[in-house]
Design goal:
651 residues, alpha+beta, Methylamine Dehydrogenase, Chain H, 4-stranded antiparallel β-sheet, 11 helices, 33 strands, disordered N terminus, disordered C terminus, motor protein, microtubule, repeat, WD40_repeat_dom_sf, cytoskeleton
């Protein structure tokens, strides 16, 4: 291949092209002015300091400043899931035979053995197998596998050999809406363990956050029935446990939603309460807007603060409670009017008063006990409701108990012992026994920080967790310790809600900044032994007995105090009578030290007399039961052989 040369006008550049190079030429005068470099010192611009501006600043000493000239690269660490391996052995009695060989036919197996023995590699394989077998036999002979080691060690050494409990983070779910909203409800789907419902309440926690949110939502309002309502910021979602990037189902609302829960028997329905007091339903399969809502005249007067589904044939009935003190019973098929409405009046009467009613904060219902439901109030009281009651007095006839100073946050039954509750409020968490009427609190846990939530484990009957305002998630196990948590997991924000998955493997924790942390439980925390249930039943029984003994001691102290008050009162009466009447017989003077006089004094008090008669009746019943017992004396084999004679008995 030959080269090619091209010439042109003198003013144009010269281009020379060859097969392996390219030459471009141009006149010097077209290159521009030549650059001449030199070293010199010259002041281009000077700015004098301004003393007025200097007064606005202070001198900081020392100054720590970091610089980074290279490219900044993010560094992250990921913990992969642990893989558990297991070894399984197999016992071959006859060995491995091909499919075409019948192991029951002796001739076919003999022919196949001879065929294998004729192969050249058979001898080498046998020698290798003999070496491996010999090594295993020597190892077994060197160690006695049936010997018990370390049986002579003292027990004190093993007490300190223990592993700390731990919990690892699986996923983080952020609020898709900006600014982030606090969480009020986390509810796992009853039949699908990979789905859970998260309700973000568009209610700011403080005044500054309220002002910022108001500026953002000014341009996102529409007119509904003559009033402005926001179209964004009230959404709540159903998330997939494995996908924290996008929610599975998105639900919309034109009003602020306060409470939402799955129907335990039909997870396709979600009931919710609004900030305006209305009650509505959503379809979990399609999402979007609500499908039905109650009218304003049938709604609560204040925000709907509590909701719980109850047992029914149609699985469409539920209770709602509000801070106005009302509890309403609804049927999802007809939301025009509630089926029943009562007020949370602490005075047991049919003529209820709304001014003295307590606000409802929590509603709880257990499907295994379809008659009763529990109500928690903002005044720290527990009300036990009866679904069969037709009047308010019949519905709340089980009574109420004041166990907290502030509002009750959560009420949850133990899944294994349904008559025991975990109740959280103010700075305390209490285990409440329904059977113990006089003093329902059987276990008390106090903290310096305010406790916002609490929940029982669904697989371990003695385990429950509490979350407080400082972001400390405490794990309590009644079998291991009753006064301090066995494990604490700390977060950077306050914990407002926590809920175990139905299988107990994961724990969903809601933070005040709108994030949901999914924690994987330690193997020791998500498994239970066969003896745990019997042990925790014994622990609860012991705690109840201790509480009863303390109550009896308190009753005795009150009776003794009452007797002392009566003595002082009678003595003061005697002194007054002596001052008023100087001429009085000596027999008429009351002597409190006389036993007969003391007996006459205390029997004259009607309240003490009734209490004493009740106590004597109980003692009489106990003695009567003891007298009715039948004691059967059975003779042992030794006594039957050597039966005493009549003469010995007479002697």
């Amino acid at each position: 291949m030959s080269g090619m040369t091209t010439s042109s006008h003198p003013l144009q550049p010269l281009i020379v092209m060859h097969y392996n190079q390219f030459i471009y030429s141009r006149e010097r005068r077209r290159f521009g002015r030549q650059c001449l470099f030199s070293d010199r010192t010259q002041l281009m611009f000077s700015i004098n300091p301004n003393m007025k501006l200097r007064r606005n600043y202070i001198l900081r000493n020392p100054v720590h400043t970091g610089t980074q000239l290279s490219d900044q690269k993010a560094f992250s660490m990921v913990e992969t899931e642990n893989v558990t391996y297991a070894e399984h052995g197999m016992y071959h009695y006859e060995g491995g035979w091909p499919k075409e060989v019948n192991i029951n036919d002796e001739e076919s197996t003999l022919r196949y053995r001879k065929k294998i023995e004729r192969e050249d590699a058979w001898g080498q394989q046998v020698m290798t197998l003999i070496a491996d077998t010999t090594a295993v036999i020597e190892q077994n002979n060197a160690v006695n596998i049936y010997q018990e080691f370390f049986i002579d060690l003292p027990d004190e050494i093993c007490e300190q050999i223990k592993f700390d409990f731990e919990s690892r983070q699986k996923n983080i779910f952020h609020d898709p809406y900006t600014p982030h909203r606090p969480i009020s409800v986390i509810d796992w789907a009853p039949n699908d363990v990979k789905r859970f419902l998260v309700l973000h309440t568009n209610i700011p926690l403080n005044r500054l956050e309220a002002i910022e949110r108001l500026k953002i939502l000014k341009s996102k309002t529409i007119k509904v029935e003559g009033r402005l309502e926001t179209t964004e910021g009230n959404n709540f979602y159903i998330w997939d446990l494995e996908n924290p990037l996008k929610p599975m189902v998105d639900f919309t609302s034109t009003e602020i939603v306060r409470k939402t829960f799955f129907c335990p028997k039909d997870e396709n329905w979600i009931a919710g309460g609004l900030h305006s007091g209305k009650v509505c339903l959503w379809d979990a399969r399609t999402g979007g807007a609500r499908i039905c809502v109650c009218p304003l005249e049938a709604a609560h007067r204040e925000a709907t603060s509590a909701l719980c589904w109850v047992h029914s044939k149609t699985n469409t009935e539920f209770y709602t409670g509000s801070l106005d003190g009302s509890v309403k019973y609804w049927d999802g098929r007809d939301m025009e009017t509630p089926i029943q409405e009562i007020l949370l009046d602490p005075v047991l009467t049919d003529s209820q008063s709304r001014p003295r009613s307590h606000g409802v904060t929590v509603l709880e219902f257990e499907y295994t006990i379809p008659v009763r439901f529990i109500i928690g109030s903002d005044m720290g009281s527990i009300f036990v409701g009866n679904r069969k009651g037709m009047t308010p007095s019949e519905t709340l006839s089980a009574g109420n108990y004041r166990i907290f100073s502030g509002p009750i946050r959560t009420i949850e039954r133990n899944p294994f012992f349904v008559k025991n509750f975990l109740i959280t409020g103010d700075w305390c968490a209490k285990v409440w026994a329904e059977e113990c009427k006089g003093s329902p609190t059987t276990l008390l846990i106090k903290k310096k920080n305010e406790i916002f939530c609490g929940t029982w484990s669904t697989v371990r009957c003695s385990l429950f967790v509490t979350g407080d305002a400082k972001g400390e998630l405490d794990f309590w196990d009644l079998l291991l310790h009753q006064r301090q948590p066995i494990f604490t997991f700390k977060f950077s924000h306050a914990i407002v809600c926590a809920k175990f998955r139905p299988d107990g493997e994961y724990l969903a924790v809601a933070l005040s900044n709108g994030d949901i942390q999914i924690l994987e439980m330690d193997p020791a925390l998500k498994h239970s032994t066969s003896k745990d249930k019997a042990l925790i039943a014994a622990v609860i029984f012991i705690i109840i007995m201790i509480t009863m003994f303390e109550r009896e001691q308190l009753r005795c102290k009150l009776l003794d105090g009452r007797v002392e008050e009566i003595k002082l009162k009678r003595k003061s009466d005697v002194i007054e009578e002596k001052k008023s009447t100087f001429l009085k017989r000596e027999d008429d003077i009351m002597n409190a030290d006389d036993p007969e006089e003391f007996l006459r004094i205390i029997t004259g008090d009607t309240e003490f007399k009734e209490a004493l008669n009740t106590f004597q009746d109980q003692v009489y019943k106990v003695d009567k039961k003891r007298q009715e017992r039948e004691y059967v004396m059975e003779r042992t084999d030794f006594e039957a052989d050597f039966e005493p004679s009549e003469m010995e008995l007479k002697s």
